UniProtKB/TrEMBL annotation:
Keywords: Fatty acid metabolism, Isomerase, Lipid degradation, Lipid metabolism, Lyase, Multifunctional enzyme, NAD, Oxidoreductase, Peroxisome. Pfam families: 3HCDH, 3HCDH_N, ECH_1. Residues 473-566, 602-687 form the 3-hydroxyacyl-CoA dehydrogenase C-terminal domain. GO terms for molecular function: (3S)-3-hydroxyacyl-CoA dehydrogenase (NAD+) activity; enoyl-CoA hydratase activity; isomerase activity; NAD+ binding. This is 3-hydroxyacyl-CoA dehydrogenase. It catalyses: a (3S)-3-hydroxyacyl-CoA + NAD(+) = a 3-oxoacyl-CoA + NADH + H(+).
Amino acid sequence: MTDKIEYSRQDDIAVLRIRNPPVNALSQAVRQGLSDAMDRAEAEDGVKAVLIVGEGRAFIAGADITEFGKPPQEPFLPDLCTRIEGSPLLVVASMHGVSLGGGLEVALGAHYRIAQPDARVGLPEVHLGLIPGAGGTQRLPRLTGAEKAIEIITSGRQVKAAEAEELGLVDRVTEGDPEAVGLAYVRELLSTGAPRRPVSELPAPEPIDWDATYDSVLKKGRGQISPATAVRAVQDSAEHPFAEGMKRERAHFMDLMQTDQRKGMIHAFFNERAVGNLPELKGVEPRALQSVGIIGGGTMGAGIATAALLAGLNVILIEMKQEAADAARERIAGNLQGAVKRGKLSESRYEAMMTTGLEVSVNYDSLRDVDLVVEAVFEDMGVKREVFGRLDAVCKPGCVLATNTSYLDVNEIAAATSRPEDVIGLHFFSPAHVMKLLEVVVADKTAPDVVATGFALGKALGKVSVRAGVCDGFIGNRILAVYRTAADHMVLDGASPFQIDKALTDFGFAMGPFAVADLAGLDIGWATRKRKAPHRHPEERVPTYIDRLCEQGHFGQKTGEGYYVYEKGKRGGTPNPKIAELVAEEQAERGITPRDFTDEEIVRRYMCAMVNEAAKVVGEGIARRPLDVDMTLLFGYGFPRFWGGPMKWADIQGLDNVLADIERYAQEDAWFWQPAPLLKKLVAEGRTFDDLNKAAS
Ligand code: 3H9
């Protein structure tokens, strides 16, 4: 038996304790250990029942994801679950923490399940581009019915113990030490002569409208294939005997294992965790963080305040005038009330946050004792420098002074203080209490413990924090500016914004770039174009057709008209017919003969522009590693998770193919399509972006 399973006897019960920290993933050694321990329990005299428990923070978090992509090793998990279920002994699982994926499948192989009240169970394989592959799609529907099983599997959500009990997924919920309550339950079952109860022997689920369910899940998945595949696997559970259903589930699972989507999603899973592990911060202690000051109570400031309050921090928010201060308080209250409505925050905690947790003031002196200040005022260098001068005068020594600027030079802002080592950029994304991304922007003189404090704040707020260097737009907005331009160029050359949006949402983006522009407000891009106009290179192509719409006061969703026309009370918009006219005028002025684009070409050009700029961002050290770009795009820009991020996408396409396309596009517009030196270097060396990630970790 492997040392991953501790075997002990409690009278006539064999206790199998899984010990594979941190989360008891089902590695080969764990699977082997469980299999051996079952053999031993069955062979030993006097054993009537087996209790399976997990040590540490979870029962079992699922299959060991680090083994995916390598040749599978026996014993295979589906066989292990069937072996547990087939035991002549009574088998009980006592679940605490999470039981996810293969972890729940092992428990479903047991004959009875007891759980702690705060336990959560689920089958999250779709988040890894997979479906449950150890009987989850066959056993779960036999307990919950097909419809509920499909909902649980395709959402991948974690089901709380109470709901799991209601659904028949667990038989009992009892608080206490998992082994102690498990043993008591087994003894009770033995004393009442409870029979073995294999889930596989329960009747198959009733049929539902499989095709309609498949279609709706496919549509909801926006290009992701595994949730729809799960519907077919559950259908198999209804239409075939259990053993045949298991075979079919395995076949689906192994097919999905080979897909790019599985590779992309597992890349996302690990790098979401790796992105905060910066070698340069090893051993660097963050500064103490209990109270946060925020300058400016607009949408951004109020969002940051909301996130900080929800994380249990005290917040002092500064506004210029009492009226604005009152409005900021209202905004924060509204945000927190949203959390109350969604059941994420109790009324009493809400009251405490709004009274003792939050102070809204018009006096900078209130910031005297705070540990960190985030400035979220108007995006203007003069205004920001004035704010930082005042903060320098008021804040205690060691207070971290952060700016939420989206593109201004953090070095210049830091220079407005006598302590540039305490100054950092913390670039939140709106709404700041919802969006997961935080760019931690490190200026030339920022002290390492200030960087560590930025990451500590991000962690406390539940954000995915990415280290960025100083440049116009940092990582995300700098890359966005370029792929947006690629989309604009395609419009000038003949593709409609609506075709582009559709091609990109079909690719998996949450929204297309033109719908996003309408949502953000066309005035933002207009202002940026005006700001950048004096610095443009003569060969730079900057379409101006949309400026004509802005000049007429149409700024997208907020004014009811932009690329799309929005009717009050209706979701989404319809294409604005004026766009075609404005584009045609500009094409005529520039002497462009419009041509057709396929959806495939649209995606390719957009992605190549993104990857090329991203390679420049990494090459210049603005992002430390390709994975920093991937996580930025995934968590701040609606990039489809199943591609893993633009750099992962490029690795999957082959960097030589991506470079060849960029060089081909450069024959039309050499100024825009200048290949990134890093991309050329990697192609020459036959290396990938992922090789760089590995080298940096
Ligand atoms: C499956 O089961 C397939 C089967 O149906 C069929 C098979 C044939 N494997 O997230 P954390 C690591 S698919 C390996 O920071 P938390 C994680 O990388 C699987 N490693 O903690 C991290 O490492 P590090 C279905 C894993 O408390 C450390 O554990 N299961 C695994 O915030 C701590 O993780 C899932 O998809 C794993 N399965 O959250 C569950 N899980 O410290 C995936 C975690 O080096 N896991 N690690 O960075 C999770 O959702 C969360 O990790 C969990 C804990 C909720 C468990």
